[in-house]
Protein: (S)-2-haloacid dehalogenase
Organism: Minwuia thermotolerans
Amino acid sequence: MTDRPRALLFDVFGTVVDWRGSIAAEIDLMTAARGWGVSGHDFALAWRNLYQPAMARIRDGGRGFVKLDVLHRENLEQVLKDFGIDDMTGAEKAELNRVWHRLDPWPDAVGGLNRLKSRFILATCSNGNISLMVNMARRAGLPWDVILGAEVARAYKPQREAYLNSAAALDLEPGECCMVAAHNDDLAAAQSFGLKTAYVERRSEFDAGGTEPRPATGDWDWIAADFRDLADQLDC
């Protein structure tokens, strides 16, 4: 059996919270009120699809580090243009951008995290910035011990600094930390830098209907159906 880690580092968007459903619901309410005729699901997906390209410029050295709120706001301008939405004020755009601060957790997330917290340090290892993670946690009741990840490391996953600086901030070796994620590529990067890995299946992260499984494709230390299952496997 794999030795247990001392800390669990969590991907957040898609692993802990439902970005797709949360944003779609908010956009659907807005489009009903304003008569936009826009699908909330399509809007959410278009916004998210600009996420990786925006970070890629920073990873590649084409732009200095800026926090994710800035990238989301820039990407929002593009999505609004693409959907032909031109009736929002600057203040309204700023408030919509903060939808990323108020994403809803998956049903098992809060209970499962509290069980895991009984035995492990719980930390974010997300590309989300500190204020975003704090606001999300306070609203949703996510029991993090500490907010780590991109803004602390000044690097976006899957850059090595995002993982190793998070471990170092806890005065832990990489092997004393376990990356928990619903994304195989995130886990592959973490594993390559010496972290333990736990895959959690989130079907609705990849398919709005939750009908398409995304199997674990790596030799991960733990594979779980959800956080409750992970807590069972880790004797919490």
In short: The longest strand covers residues 121-126. The first helix runs from residue 19 to 34. Residues 19-101 form a domain with the DNA polymerase; domain 1 fold (CATH 1.10.150.240).
